[in-house]
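FAQ: What does a multi-protein file look like?

Like this. Sequence, then tokens, then the next protein.
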Amino acid sequence: MEKISLKNELSNNAYPGRGIVVGKTPNGRKAVIAYFIMGRSENSRNRVFVADGDEVIRTKAFDESKLEDPSLIIYAPMRVLGNKTIVTNGDQTDTIYELMDKQMTFEQALRTREFEPDAPNYTPRISSVLHVENGTFNYAMSILKSNNGNPKACNRYTFAYTNPIPGEGHFIHTYKCDGNPLPSFEGEPKLIEMIDDMDEFAKLVWESLNEDNKVSLFVRYIDIETGKAETKIVNKNN
């Protein structure tokens, strides 16, 4: 698979929707997570990311008086379970956390969920889990989506990456591009190049997202040797 520029990939797509990036820095020292949300409606755009301690990130209404339906937009996109970090685009974060805590696997936990019930888009649920322990790092990514827009079937795909190569990451997002209805992401996660510096990486992602549609971004770098993490949050509403 050809390694592509994340900057170009984002700049040339007005509406990838919500996206997850996971990878390893070129120097091999850090595991990297990026998660962004976008929105076309006022309800979707009325959000910010907030940190709830060091182990949880949540979405929150920027203006509570304008919050309409919270069901698919208010959730925890990131939770930490021991040496695992879970990142998703919906409340399946909690499902994965709770069931992995009961010794179920990432895939088993996601077997209990489907794509979002937001006809006619049937937004895919994208998820990732990172495992950092004693100097080792691996991760998996998943997408649950309707069968080419048919909600009678749920197609489930999991991609696992053992001993990731320094400087490489993978990018998965909810929508192939803008449209009505929105077409779901197709294929396996895209191979992208990574950056050592967290602030530089956050700036690259944020500035590459469509100005009208971007809402929030968080980037998290985890030291593979120590497990220590640092996080940066960027909100359009602040």
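And here is the next protein:
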Amino acid sequence: MPSGLRDGTGARPALSAILVAMVLGAAGCTPLDDLMADIFKRSMRNQESFDPYENTLPPPEGSVAMSAGNYAASPFEVNLGQPEGASDVPPPFTQLDMTNRPEIVDRLANPVPSSPESLARGEELYDRVCVVCHGSDGAGTTGYIFEVHPLMAAYPLRAPRAVALSDGYIYGMIRVGRGNMPAYGHQIPHYDRWHVVNYVRQLQGVGAEGAN
């Protein structure tokens, strides 16, 4: 074995070379960074930033302010940031709650009459959110997703079992989902869910509360 490796002296030049290379490499970035700072008048080493809510700007002219988490006070009002909201929002529940204790949603009364205005709003939301899976006629095999994934056919809304569901149960499915259907509570507000329920009843050819 070479003596340099045996006594460790041969490793010292290699270690020194590595250290020198590291120092030169680090130093090599500084002139380039200084040059970019001279050109663009800023550097990653010293950059200005804003703290949260510092130097906030007012909303653009004509924009509609929204208050996350607040509900509109009635079925046809738009929440503009007021703290008041609906007083008839059911307390939180889950899919498991609906399975084990369906009465928690079955007993919910639909507070929105099935008026032409409600049906128009329900149709707008249905075409925006529901039609992709359930189809425009509620058949479940006429949705856009069925053309791509035939095994993902949605349950037909006009089937006797769906017609027999209470308004509250359909509301609950929209809010927390069921089976393969995801929750849409974050996307469809409280009263809008009832508008969708009314429109689904129209697709089913029955009145409010279905067969109940």
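Q: Is there any per-entry metadata?
A: Some entries carry free-text notes. For the entry above: The mean pLDDT is 81.
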